[in-house]
Amino acid sequence: MLGPRAAVVMKKEREFQILSSVLGAGPTASIVPSENPDFRVRPQGRNREFGAEITEFYPSESHARVQNRPGYVSQILDSGEYIHRDDQAMFPVGPAQLYAADGTPKGSITGIFTEILPPADYFAKVSSLIDRKNARYHDYAEGLSHVILVIHDNSLTLSKFDSATFSTLFYASDIAKSIAQCGFSEVYLVTRFRDFPQRRCVPAKALLFFQLIYAYLHGARVYQNEGGVSDEIVFGSLLPYLRQRGGFMATLSEHPSGLSVDSVSAKAIVSEDSGLSLIVADPAGEPLSKDPELHLPSDRDLVSHCLRYSTENTVGLSISFLAHGVLGQTNHPDLIEPGRA
C-alpha cells in the first residue's frame, strides 16, 4: 500500500493530467501546484495567473475505493474480502453468463456487479459537488484573474447517452442552477458520451449560456408574434433575462454577422435570421474581450414571458463536443429543438 506522501504525489500527478486534458496543447509559461486552488497557471505572455480547481466525481465512496486502490478488485474476487462493509453491498460478487455476438452461450465467469447511477441521481450528486466547491470559491480566487473548475467524471452514467441527449438532460436538471450561480468562470465536465469513444471536455457554463439564449429567442418570437414588439426591444430584454434566469452578466455588441451576446466564458453570435453560433473562451486565456456595448431598451413583460417559457420548455442541442474545452459551432436554429418538459 502506498504511504501518505506517495499517495499525495500520485494524486497531484493525476490532477495535472486532468488539467492538461482541458488546457490542450496551448503554450503556458508555468503550472504551479498549490492547495487552494489545486493549480496556479500563468499563460505565456501574461503576468497574472489564473486558478484551476480539479475534482473527481465518483457515484459513491465505494466506487472511489474500487477504482483507486491497487489490487482491490482482485482481492474481492479471490478472497471475498472487502475494505468497507458498504463496498460489499455496492459491489456483490456473482456469476455472469457470456454470449457470442450471435447470442450463443459461451460459458460463465465470476464477476463484480454494480448499478449505474440513474441520470437524475447523477446530476443531483454533481450539482451538490459544484455547490460544495463554490462555497470555497473566494478562498480559491484570491490574487487570481479567474478560476476554472474541472470535474473528471468517473461514473458510467453519461456513457449510455449521446451528446444531444445529454444536453437535454443537462438543461432540465439541478446542475444547471448550480453552474449558473457558481463563481467559477467555467465549469468543465470531462466525461464520455455514447457517440464519442474518447473523453470529451464540456464547458458547461458556456453550454447553459447558449441554451438559455436559444430558449429566450424562441420564446421572444412567440411573444413578438402576439404583441408586435420590435427587434430592438427583443434584444434589449435579453440581458435582464439572462441575469434573472441564469445569473449571467452579459453585454450586447455589434458583430459582422449580427449581434454578439458576450459573457466571461462565451460569446453567442445571433445572425439576422436568428441563427446561432457559439465562441467559447480558451481555458488558458483571458476572459473574452468585449466590443463597445450596445444599450437597447427592454420590456419587463417580455422578460417575464421568456422566464416562464425557458423554465417550462426543455432545450436540447445537436452540437459537437471537441477534445479541449470547446463546443463545436452550431449555426442553424433547426439543430436546436425545444420541447415540452
Q: How would the blueprint of this fold be written?
A:
Blueprint (H helix, E strand, L loop, with lengths): L3 H20 L4 E6 L5 E5 L6 E8 L3 H8 L3 H8 L5 H6 L2 E7 L5 E8 L6 H16 L2 H5 L5 E7 L9 H9 L2 H8 L4 E8 L2 E8 H24 L3 H6 L1 H9 L4 E5 L2 E5 L3 E6 L4 E5 L19 H13 E5 L18 E5 L1
Parallel strand pairs: 3-6, 6-7
Antiparallel strand pairs: 1-2, 2-3, 4-5, 7-8, 9-10, 10-11, 11-12, 13-14
Helix pairs in contact: 5-8, 9-11, 9-12, 11-12
Can you characterise this structure?
Helix 5 runs parallel beside helix 8 (174-181) and helix 11 crosses helix 12 (300-312). The chain has a 6-stranded mixed β-sheet, with helices on both faces. 39% of the residues lie in helices and 26% in strands. With 341 residues, the protein is α+β, with helices and mostly antiparallel strands. The chain has helices at 4-23, 61-68, 72-79, 85-90, 119-134, 137-141, 163-171, 174-181, 204-227, 231-236, 238-246, 300-312; strands at residues 28-33, 39-43, 50-57, 93-99, 105-112, 147-153, 186-193, 196-203, 251-255, 258-262, 266-271, 276-280, 313-317, 336-340.
Q: Quick one: overall form?
A: globular
**What level of helicity do the residues show?**
25-40%
Order of helices and strands: HEEEHHHEEHHEHHEEHHHEEEEHEE
| Count of alpha/pi helices | 12
Determine the strand fraction and express it as a percent band.
25-35%
Straight-line distance between termini: 49 Å
Q: Largest sheet, if any? A: 6 strands, mixed
Whole-number total of structural domains? 3
CATH architecture of the largest domain: 3-Layer(aba) Sandwich
Structural class: alpha+beta
DSSP summary, beta strand count: 14
CATH class group of the largest domain: Alpha Beta
Return residue spans where pLDDT drops below 50 for at least 5 consecutive residues: 320-341
Question: In which order are the strands of the major sheet placed?
Answer: 1-2-3-6-7-8
**Mean pLDDT over all positions:** 82
Which fold does the CATH topology of the largest domain refer to?
Answer: Hypothetical protein pa4535
Radius of gyration: 23 Å
